[in-house]
Amino acid sequence: MRFTKYLLFPLLAVLCGCGKFFVDTTNPPGSTGNIIYIANSQASSVAGFSVSTTAGTLTALNNGNTFSVAAGPTTLVATPSGSFLYVGGQSGNIVAYTINADGTITAVNNGSPVASGFSPTSMVIDSTGTWLLAVDGISGSIFEFQINATTGVLTAANPATIPLDQPASPSQVYITPNNQFAYVALQTGGVDVFTFNSTSGALTNRLLLKPTTGTGGPNADLAVLADPNTKFLFVGETGINAVRVFTIGTGGALVEVSGSPFTTGAGPSAFAMDSTGSFLYVATRGAGKISGFSLGVNGTLTALSSSPFTAGTFTSVTGPQTMTLDPSGKFLAVVSAGGGPDLQIFSFDAATSGKLDSVATASTGSDPVQAVAVTAVK
After folding, report:
1. Residue 221: CA atoms inside 13 Å, Cβ hemisphere, count?
2. According to the model, what pLDDT value does residue 286 have?
3. Number of neighbouring beta carbons within 10 Å of residue 12
4. On the CB side of 178, how many CA atoms lie within 13 Å of its CA?
5. What is the DSSP secondary structure assignment for residue 23, as one 8-state letter?
């Protein structure tokens, strides 16, 4: 089960240049709100939208033009302050951009990469905005950098590179809300667990969570997430098409909760929670759906009666790729590599707890663009 690696490094020829992206005609320009950016892997561009904090409607940034970036972006992340955006991917680099007041982006470091020599498949920044972690799908390593808060330039940590447990085709790197742990989803290799020190940046006390074993061998762990209190760890695992839930103990020790794993649709590949930590949402790439659950006090998951929710094209590799809350916490943004649509915004239903209501959709460029990653900026 290594399809994520091939999705992130597509065989299709990369399209260069700058294209138009279009807002759904039901959501006319003029709204204001928080900003989200989307990486278009096939189109080598980043799209930007503001999201209305009242209705979730979308307004295209940059006069409807995408931002041209290095070939094949597969991941992007913004600092918590909203000062800088980092974009990485098949170019073998990470490039940093200043986020301007109007949401447009300007390359820093004279346009030169701020990190080179590897092709990040996933990046994350800790909540202090000091450390950036990236994982490389080719070497199977984790890379760590310190962020210059003034210039956005990255400086390699010491050590700069840590090999991951093998087999490693890392699909996601993640830091918990309390900044105490870092996790790397390794697909068939399982999940690497590190303790994390946000002062020094040290990654220590390494553990390995192995995936369950099916009839054809180990399943694949594609996504990880902790609840806002860093009490539980959620792991999306293919093969069993389910979420495994663990309590997080001292030193990162993991104990699987009673009733785990909890069944989802096919291909659980990304997670999101509402701002209260009451509901877990799972993007199931192979089903073109989002599975919704309520979270119990002991970590048990109960499927919502209104779930699943349709999102993106129904195929095994091009359905919903990743999700994020907008900074207001009122809306959920979902991107799908196969379009149908590229970007979809959901609100949380006022009458039915946990239910998602689709309120806006948009193309993120001149399709096909292969939208694969999204990040939110205050």
Report:
1. 28
2. 84
3. 10
4. 13
5. B
Report whether 211 contacts 190 (CB < 8 A): yes
pLDDT tens per residue across span 239-260: 999 999 999 999 899 999 999 9
What distance in Å separates the CA atoms of residue 378 and residue 375, rounded to the nearest whole number? 10
Read off the pTM: 0.90
Give the helix/strand (H/E) hosting 161.
strand 154-163
* 3 state DSSP class of 116: strand
Query: What tokens does 108 get?
Result: 């820093």
Q: Which two tokens stand for residue 132?
A: 């950036």
What is the C-alpha separation between 366 and 349, in angstroms, rounded?
A: 31
Amino acid identity of 265? G
Residues in contact with 335: Cβ distance below 8 Å, sequence separation at least 6, in sequence order: 38, 312, 320, 321, 322, 323, 342, 343, 344, 364, 371, 372, 373, 374
3-state secondary structure of 243: strand
Q: Per-residue confidence at 314, pLDDT binned at 50, 70, 90?
A: low
SS (H, E, C) 32-81: CEEEEEEEECCCCEEEEEEEECCCCCEEECHHHECEECCCCEEEEEECCC
Q: Which amino acid is at 83?
A: S
